[in-house]
Design brief:
nine-stranded mixed beta sheet, about 35% helix
Amino acid sequence: MHVHLRTRSRAIDYAFVNSTPDSRWWDAYADWTATERPCLHAVAEDGEGHWRVLLSGIPSVRTDSGGRLIYYTLVLEGAHHTAEQDAAIVLSLASCLLADLEEDEQGRGVLSDLLDGICPAAEVDRLLAAPTEFAMERKDLTTRLLASVAALEPLPHDALAAGRGRFDRWIAGRSAPGASVAFLTRLSALLSGEEHGQAHLLNLVSEAEDVAELFPGRLTVLVEGGKVGDPAMPLERLPEPKAPSGPAPLGSSGARPKVRWRTPMARTSLAALILLLLLAGVSCIFVVLF
């Protein structure tokens, strides 16, 4: 299994501090989630012998030079045939992320403490300032990271066995009764290769309509609910998409309009447009009066 850790320092922007994945595959879901808020993507599709998982929005105690909260992103990649031990690690990380969200709206908890302990500010500053140097230090960080996440309390097998979902495609709020266990059960099946499909914890969706075209196969979605949507939304079956569209290619805009206008860039553009309209209105009034 490969594990990659991304964060930033007080002055240097976000980058991977130990190793960099081959691709930014998670960018395909940018219209459905923002990585600065807690989220999770798990992808194990037909024809692939491996899985990919991203956990992001894990808050640090550190802040940047503007006083904004710094967060962590973990990207994990593994093969189905070696998944038993690796799957236990990913499942523990996912269960901790969900448990931390239940305790704190920002998601601060076990994972925050773990990653802050591995990444002291001085080390992050040094590694990000010299992206092509300190190979041994980066390897040591990866070793410590793997050891720390492997020591997390594993999920009991009986809990997963009790969480079999009723549908191949469904959406629910993360705190709805049974939803988190059903989500982790689906995640376990994806990691082992028993099932193929996708599972996501998303923070820019609020209802089934938002994700109807997200992925045409087996799909599980939890609504994060920190900023958008109801975290207690009851489990609901997702209909089959009208046409296999899948996530939008990188650089294109394939999300539903309702979802696109929730993205940070869209909200910023809308605010700028409103400001320009207000300024134009004031100018017109000034011309009429004077």
